[in-house]
């Protein structure tokens, strides 16, 4: 499948958030953190804000580095989400969608106090899943 963006560009704010996450978690590879951020944003049902700061002074990585062995899976997810979120069906629509979700996810992850690594991310995800089930059981979701 065609990558939604190559290279993947991250703003200066995103780079700063990645540095914070790397320091807090000890996860050395930015691409891993970016994948977590993307999935964290995809978990939200609402579309992300479309206005993302420019990438001057930020980070660039190839799609292959960003997505790794699961490049086709991530590309399919981004393309599907771009349609669901109402981004343009032009080729740049998927790229804008990827960038918006990536930056929203980085904001979510970087705003967490006391991130201690991947275990903290997984624990938080499991806790959110339990909360979602409780809310759905009460007719809230």
Helix/strand layout:
Elements: E1 8-10, H1 12-25, H2 30-42, E2 59-61, H3 63-67, H4 71-84, H5 91-111, H6 118-137
Antiparallel strand pairs: 1-2
Helix pairs in contact: 1-5, 2-5, 4-5
Characteristic key phrases:
about 140 residues; mainly alpha; Arc Repressor Mutant
Q: How would you characterize the overall build of this protein?
A:
Helix 1 (12-25) packs across helix 5 (91-111). Strands 1-2 form a two-stranded antiparallel ribbon. It is mainly α and 141 residues long. The chain contains six helices and two strands. The protein has one domain (8-115): DNA sulphur modification protein DndE (Arc Repressor Mutant, Orthogonal Bundle), CATH 1.10.1220.160. The longest helix has 21 residues, at 91-111.
CATH topology, which one?
Arc Repressor Mutant
Distance from N terminus to C terminus (CA atoms, Å) equals 33 Å
Strand order of the largest sheet: 1-2
Largest sheet: 2 strands, antiparallel
Number of helices: 6
Q: H/E order of the elements?
A: EHHEHHHH
Can you give the mean pLDDT? 82
Q: Return the domain count.
A: 1
Residue share in helices?
55-70%
Question: Which structural class is indicated by helix and strand composition?
Answer: mainly alpha
Number of strands: 2
How would you classify the quaternary structure? single chain
Principal-axes shape call: globular
Low-pLDDT runs of 5+ residues are: none
- Assigned CATH superfamily: DNA sulphur modification protein DndE
Please compute the radius of gyration using only Cα atoms.
15 Å
Just give the CATH class.
Mainly Alpha
Q: What percent of residues are in strands? A: under 5%
CATH architecture: Orthogonal Bundle
């Amino acid at each position: 499948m065609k990558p939604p963006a190559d290279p993947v560009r991250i703003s200066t704010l995103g780079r700063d958030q990645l540095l914070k996450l790397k320091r807090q978690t000890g996860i050395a590879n930015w691409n891993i953190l970016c994948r977590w951020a993307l999935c964290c944003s995809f978990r939200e049902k609402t579309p992300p804000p479309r206005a993302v700061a420019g990438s001057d002074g930020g980070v660039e990585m190839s799609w292959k580095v960003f997505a790794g062995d699961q490049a086709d899976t991530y590309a399919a997810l981004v393309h599907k989400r771009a349609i669901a979120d109402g981004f343009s069906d032009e080729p740049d629509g998927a790229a804008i969608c990827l960038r918006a979700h990536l930056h929203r996810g980085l904001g979510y992850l970087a705003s967490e106090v006391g991130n201690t690594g991947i275990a903290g991310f997984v624990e938080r995800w499991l806790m959110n899943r339990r909360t979602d089930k409780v809310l759905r059981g009460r007719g809230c979701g």
